[in-house]
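User: ok so my PI wants both of these folded by tonight, can you help

Assistant: No problem, let's get them done. Here's the first:
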Amino acid sequence: MNKFSAGFTAVELLIVMALALLIVGFSFKGFLLFKRNLMHWQERITLEQAGQRIIKSLTEDLYKLRGIQQADPTTITFEDYKGDTLTYRLKNQNIFKNGYPLLHNQILAQFLKFEYYTSEGDIIEKQKIERIKIHLILRYKKNRYFELISSVKLRNRRSF
């Protein structure tokens, strides 16, 4: 063996480069998969936070309800304990509170429905409402959906 030939042959270098290329390729694919999953979870968290914010606002206001003025499947208008009139409405894929939109940043309201019940669970007219069920479905961009269902038992209700 010649002391000047201590090195790698072209074939050995090609094999090492091919293996390195495979490792880099698999690492990049793993990174792309991680990035896609991260974006999915960020979208889900954004939807959940928006839905929970709306449900929280609605339930807090409904707990303060003194009288219902309008009780439709997609709109509710009521007076709170201070005498202020509040209206929640589904319109143009957004939920409005007294005319102000509650959704932003590519989040759309696909579905909002109010159902009105007695304490026994019967659906009834607005004078006898004791419990309101809220069903909300939100959509983010094209294909991410989030559904929330909540129920509020009215405490301070009085008839109009």
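One down. Here's the second:
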Amino acid sequence: MKHNLQFDFLVDKEKNTLTIRREFLAGRQLVWDCYTKSELLDQWFAPKPLTTKTRSMDFREGGHWHYAMVEPNGTEHWGYTEYRTIKAIDFYTALDAFSNASGKINTDLPRADWRVTFTDKGDNAIVETVVTYKSLSDLETVIQMGMEQGMLATLEKLDELLEVLSKKITVTTTIDAGIEKVWNFYTNPDHITKWNFADPSWHCPSASNDMRPGGKYVARMEAKDGSFGFDFEAVYDRVVDGESFAYTMPDGRRVDVRFSKNGQQTEAVVSFDPESENPADMQKGGWQAILNSFKQYAEAN
């Protein structure tokens, strides 16, 4: 197992339960996304050499996930999960079953209640999955089917996916200005509204910045034609005045911004946790465009 990460596989034949407890080298938000978004589940939820494909997914209370584990020769093993209760980032419960390609439950194979809980362990996440079967016979059936080995191999695939997703994206630029000016222009709301957009068709009509650990940063981002807009929000984790700061966004992703002198110029480095919905190169391009906008504004004023 990579990095000696915690892995417990506990069988309780009195309660007809399996408890799988696993540590991951990633934050809880990202691990939650990997368990609850079909585009990510398709990348890990089957032991090698099998792959996963989703036919339909509606992650909400009363919703479902209909999917197949696919062998290299094309043989499909279908499953159907019905979601019962969900508390975002903390836990969900579900009823899991084998099915066919149309979603009809296979009553000849065991069904099980799943409770999947997500907790923090420092910067890592712990996922505890408690699977409850209706009978001891059902429990012994899935054990004989290789549940422990299959789960171990599957979670190692998740390790690989998290390693890719957890890599921070970094954008940089060098500004032809001193570090004091650069810091002021980057952190003062009066200046932020002049440069904080990736494209000239957008603007930043308002910004506020309580720049201290625990303080909040809010910038309004809008298309100039009014077709779309959103508030970019974050809470500061660390501020070293005139040098660097770090903040966390509402979804748990972290951003680190650093400035350093380079002769009469200043180098700016912004590193951030990627989100899971858009390609990394698209995210990098957007953040780089905003940093380029800042450079242009700072050098022109």
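Helices lie at 28-36, 38-41, 136-144, 147-166, 179-187, 189-195, 280-300. The radius of gyration is 24 Å. Good luck tonight!
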